[in-house]
Specification:
By secondary structure, the chain is an alpha+beta fold. Among the domains are: 76-194, Beta Barrel (Cathepsin D, subunit A, domain 1), CATH 2.40.70.10; 216-306, Deoxyuridine 5'-Triphosphate Nucleotidohydrolase, Chain A (Distorted Sandwich). 19% of the residues lie in helices and 32% in strands. It has a 6-stranded mixed beta barrel with strand order 1-2-7-3-6-5. The protein has a 6-stranded antiparallel beta sheet with strand order 16-13-19-10-12-17. Residues 31-54 are annotated as: Disordered.
Amino acid sequence: MEEVIDEEFLPRPSKALRGDSILEECLVDEREVESTTQSSPLWEGPPSPASPRTVRISKKRRTAPGYSAVGVSVVSMRGKVSHLDNKEIDLRLDSCADISLISLDFYESLKFTPKLRQGLKMKLYWLTEWDTVMSSYVVMLVYVPTKEGLILEMGVEAYVVPNMTVPVLLGEDFHLNYELSVSRNVEVGTVIHSFVKLKSHRPNKVRKKARKQKFGEDVWLIRAERDYHLLPHTVRNIWVEGDFGKEKEWMVEKFLLQNADKSFFAIPNTLISSMNPIIPIANPTNVPRMIRCGEVIGRMSDPSLFFDKPQDLKHLEDLLNSSAQTSLILESLQVSGSS
């Protein structure tokens, strides 16, 4: 009888490693690999991020279905180009166009035409009936009137385009040069702003003319901005409006505002700021009173002309002593009132 060894229990011969190999071959039982594969789930990638929160914005303007564009026009402003004697037109503002354009037909119809110049050769799409190659441009002035009675003068480079359907298109280059922005309001309308400071030519003369056109002879009067109800024996701060001009302070002189029954509102001497024009008004009567919007509240003047100025050192010393005494009285009243 000869003993036969089962080959299944014999160790498997190891393969000789090559001289350039640094890793030893690892023999893994196939059954172990299969069980591991079945028990371990596959990696599905990183977890999905949380969904962002959605916020719905309510419409300020509501229309019937299919009528959203009814009554809406493109953003434009009235003005003239090249010369003040040329015809006034609608200057369309288009922030989707990177350059400003002028129609060839409109350019040739101008009474005063700017000189044509040779510029970059460009191809224009979508604005005309066919693809248009343009290379000529003009440097011209744009004149735009304001609500204050001024005329703004701005420069623009505009390429001349044949067969264009609008006379002038002011593109994003013009908007950026003068930092133009557009504010939209359903009640007020669309307003175009520029954040570039104006360079005033003959500022006093222009300002006086604009003030006279707007306010007439009542240029120094101030009026209630809206209706106010004053309770008996109370003081209330009210907003006023007037020709405050530039940012500065104004002096409102004391004033007695007469009612229909010959009683009065009392208004003290008040320093106001053009940025915050508020005036205190007292109702010393036993009945409530109304101040209507647009009612004259008082008269303002330049503080430098209203207050006393020291004529010499002795006068300056007297003014300082008087101011110090007034400050002491106010401080004592404040202390007595708080105690």
